[in-house]
Design goal:
With 223 residues, the protein is mainly alpha-helical. Helices cover 74% and strands 4% of the residues. The protein folds into two domains: 68 residues, Arc Repressor Mutant, subunit A (Orthogonal Bundle), CATH 1.10.10.10; 144 residues, Up-down Bundle (Four Helix Bundle (Hemerythrin (Met), subunit A)), CATH 1.20.120.530. The radius of gyration is 19 Å and the shape is globular. InterPro entries: GntR_C, TF_FadR/GntR_C, Tscrpt_reg_HTH_GntR, WH-like_DNA-bd_sf, WH_DNA-bd_sf.
């Protein structure tokens, strides 16, 4: 039983990583024989992994048809973004109350440095990856393991769609996002919870509006 569970976990992590990275496009069907060959596993742990992914609304198991990667509507992405932003707001408050040092938040500082390099290089993909690392870092540093687990789980669900949405943002918006993140970092280090919450809320509202506008202009309804 232990071996079976570990295989399921391995299959779950591997398949989820492929989907999040955008290697399997939405609305496409997963090639189970190919997955079995790639992972060197039987179909049982892979199907169990698919059941978990269906629970997370990442895939849809369609009888007699296959397993389809679920796309996100823009409305769904906005709804998930609101949920995650609310959770991250609490994480920001928790971090401020922990009075962390620059050494403590080094992963976040590295993410900001990567975002800056990506902006200079006009590298959209690198920027999106660094941005994701920054936001995940807020959950990791917040000190509440349940909040971290829930927040990271939600980010997993929308990461692929969010990365695609970010690819449509102009570089000027990415530059402003970097400035906002740096401002947040400074007030977090100062332990100023009120300012941190205000900066974070303003940023979330702004980035949400930016995404909504750019996707509407391009008549994109699903990701």
């Amino acid at each position: 039983m232990v071996k079976k569970q570990s295989l399921t976990d391995k299959a779950y992590s591997a398949i989820k990583a492929e989907i999040i990275a955008g290697h399997i496009s939405p609305n496409n069907f997963i090639d189970l024989p190919q997955i079995e060959e790639q992972l060197g596993m039987s179909r049982t742990p892979i199907r169990e992994a698919m059941l978990r992914l269906q629970t997370e609304k990442i895939v849809e198991i369609m009888p007699k048809q296959g397993i389809r990667i679920l796309p996100f509507s823009v409305k769904e992405l906005d709804e998930f973004h609101q949920i995650i932003s609310s959770l991250e707001l609490q994480a920001v408050g928790n971090i401020c109350r922990r009075h962390l040092t620059r050494t403590d938040i080094m992963p976040v500082l590295y993410a900001l440095s990567s975002m800056e390099n990506a902006v200079k290089a006009r590298d959209t993909a690198a920027w999106a990856e660094a941005n994701e690392t920054f936001h995940r870092g807020l959950f990791i540093l917040n000190g509440n393991s349940k909040l971290m687990e829930t927040g990271l789980g939600y980010r997993d669900v929308i990461q692929r769609a969010l990365t695609l949405a970010f690819s449509h943002l102009p570089m000027a918006a990415k530059e402003r996002s970097l400035r906002n993140h740096n401002q947040l970092k400074e007030v977090i280090l100062a332990g100023d919870e009120v300012s941190a919450r205000n900066i974070f809320l303003e940023h979330c509202d702004w980035i949400g509006n930016q995404l909504h506008t750019v996707l509407a202009e391009r008549e994109i309804t699903s990701l």
